[in-house]
Write a structure and sequence with these properties.
single chain; 349 residues; alpha+beta; Rossmann fold; OB fold (Dihydrolipoamide Acetyltransferase, E2P); 2 domains; five-stranded antiparallel β-sheet; membrane; ABC_transporter-like_ATP-bd; ABC-type putrescine transporter activity; transport; cell membrane
Length: 349
């Protein structure tokens, strides 16, 4: 089992009386790619800044390899940070930007040359040593920023939405590149994003945050397939979320129908949220379905159609490879294992 490299215990932080982090605790393992994911204002960037030493928590402690580093300044921590804006030095060329940290440490020139060469190879920028950073594309500038951070051999690399300024195609390419680098280097990456696809693509572990609290922590598969509550289900991908009643173990009522499910351990007649992913709804003939609805719109998405269906007072989103005519009536089938039952969460949680 991998050892924890970072432990955050009971971290709270407020700005101008506004609570940004509320008694947050988490463990980060060595050599993992961990992503802090959530909407704007959820506390993910503040968490990263506290890890880096740019912010100090009001309460709680940060342990690094078992040692309390809560009061250590950033330059004494074995972490480096890559920001969205990269913060490169425009008056320096690529070589000088990457070598900057080692020059500050008065590292011998021959050692600097060797390490810069290694970094350029790692980020696929060999031959760019003398180029002005202002002449580079966004993706190339990002690679320089990563190389500059990695050349100092940190045990942990913090990345604060570093792909946000890139176009879609380049962003997808860099997702794969970052994961490749992390696996090759074998160091811990802590990545901040509000982009669900980025988190699912790159992460070993995802932490979903909202209002300064952790909503769920787990693998991408767990977060997507077994969301802990309606917030997580709604934030990670598209979901149909309906009011329901848990009649008994393995039996739930919603949309005025009783369905078999695979969940248990709820109170009898407990009010719950029912979560069903759009791709888990089967389209059948109107007289064959568990539910029946009218197609209100259909949009071609490339690999599937996104179909909006009105069923009673409910609106369903369905992802299916079958085409359905607008205003046609279709049947909907839902298998027990595709019905996810969530306890109701108050607005304050």
């Amino acid at each position: 089992m991998k050892q924890n490299i970072i432990e955050m215990k009971g971290i709270s932080k407020s700005f101008d009386g506004n609570c940004v982090l509320d008694n947050l605790s988490l463990n980060i393992k060595k050599n993992e790619f961990l992503t802090l994911l959530g909407p704007s204002g959820c506390g993910k960037t503040t968490t990263l800044k506290i890890l880096a030493g740019f912010e100090v928590a009001d309460k709680g402690e940060v342990l690094f390899n078992g040692n309390d580093i809560s009061s250590l300044p950033p330059y004494k921590r074995q972490v480096n940070t890559v920001f969205q804006k990269y913060a490169l030095f425009p008056h320096m060329n690529v070589y000088e930007n990457i070598a900057f940290g080692l020059k500050i440490k008065k590292t011998p020139k021959n050692e600097i040359d060797l390490k810069v060469k290694e970094m350029l190879k790692l980020v696929s920028l060999e031959g760019f040593e003398k180029r002005s950073v202002e002449s580079l594309s966004g993706g190339q500038q990002q690679r320089v920023a990563i190389a500059r951070a990695l050349i100092n051999e940190p045990e942990v690399l913090l990345l604060d939405e570093p792909l946000g300024a890139l176009d879609l195609k380049l962003r997808k390419e860099m997702q794969i590149e970052l994961k490749r680098m992390q696996q090759r280097l074998g160091i811990t990456f802590i990545f901040v994003t509000h982009d669900q696809e980025e988190a699912l693509t790159m992460s070993d572990t995802i932490i979903v945050m909202n209002k300064g609290k952790i909503q769920q922590m787990g693998s991408p598969e767990d977060i997507y397939n077994e969301p802990a509550n309606a917030f997580v289900a709604n934030f990670i991908g598209a979901s149909n979320i309906l009011d329901g009643t848990m009649l008994d173990d393995f039996k739930v009522e919603f949309c005025n129908n009783t369905f078999v499910c695979v969940d248990k351990g709820f109170k009898q007649n407990e009010l719950i949220d029912v979560v069903i992913r759009p791709e888990d709804i089967k389209i059948v003939a109107a007289d064959k379905g568990m539910l029946k609805g009218t197609v209100k719109s259909i949009i071609f998405k490339g690999v599937h159609y996104e179909i909006e269906v009105e069923e009673g007072n409910n609106k369903w989103i369905i992802h299916n490879t079958k085409f359905a005519e607008v205003n046609s009536v279709i049947g909907l089938d839902i298998y027990p294992e595709d019905i996810h039952i969530m306890r109701k969460v108050s607005n304050n949680e």
